[in-house]
Amino acid sequence: AEGRALFTDILKKVAETTFIPLTVGGGINTLEDFDRVLKCGADKVSVNSGAIKNPDLIAQAAQKYGDQCVVLSVDVKRVDGKFTVFAKGGRENTGMDAIEWIKKCVALGAGEVVVNSIDTDGVKRGFDLEMLEAVCDAVSVPIIASGGAGSMEDFVTLFKELPKVDAGLAASIFHFGEVNIKELKERLAKENIPMRL
């Protein structure tokens, strides 16, 4: 929000000690930003407000680094019953239709989409299944659900109801130890949801 550059020193340390695919986002506005975080060890780069300001950034990055590297992150909120794109961390209503925006960005080369529901974010009562289903029906790239996870059951419901969703994202429930990641993965595997243990 303050226009700071990414903490490249922290990113390098994380990349050196983490052996899972690493996606980095926040403050990605130029091809040089993509280049910098990739050189620091990121595997994928997430872009949100930077793409809203300059949609061609997605096409440029996809052409240079490949579609699999470009992750579109979208903050979506219902406005008058319509899924609407918000920018600047969900603070600014762009007025853009979210489904059309996601379709456009995938056509430009976004190889993955993180859909964050502002309506359910932080509520801890489950993912926004209606919104996620609309996105899954619109595009065929991997979809990551974000916003609303409060329990293991929320993940079970997400993957059972919407098998097209590729991943579920959560933050505070993991940070504060409300849900243990290993136990969650074991629970999902028991529910016959494909899971790397």
List the helices and strands and how they pair.
Elements: H1 8-17, E1 23-25, H2 31-39, E2 44-47, H3 49-53, H4 56-65, E3 70-79, E4 82-87, E5 92-97, H5 98-108, E6 112-117, H6 129-138, E7 143-146, H7 152-161, E8 167-169, H8 172-175, H9 181-190
Parallel strand pairs: 1-2, 2-3, 3-6, 6-7, 7-8
Antiparallel strand pairs: 3-4, 4-5
Which keywords apply here?
197 residues; globular; single chain; 9 helices; alpha/beta; TIM Barrel
Topology as a string of helices (H) and strands (E) = HEHEHHEEEHEHEHEHH
Spans of 5+ residues with little confidence (pLDDT < 50)? none
Shape: globular
Task: Sketch the major β-sheet.
Answer: 8 strands, mixed
Question: Number of helical segments?
Answer: 9
Q: Using the 3D structure, state the CATH architecture of the domain at 73-190.
A: Alpha-Beta Barrel
The residue-averaged pLDDT reads 94
What CATH calls the topology of the domain at 73-190 is TIM Barrel
CATH superfamily of the domain at 73-190: Aldolase class I
Rg, Å, rounded? 16 Å
Summarize the amount of helix as a percent range.
40-55%
For the terminal residues, how far apart are their CA atoms?
A: 36 Å
Strand content: 15-25%
Would you report the number of β strands? 8
The CATH class of the domain at 73-190 turns out to be Alpha Beta
Helix/strand-derived class?
A: alpha/beta
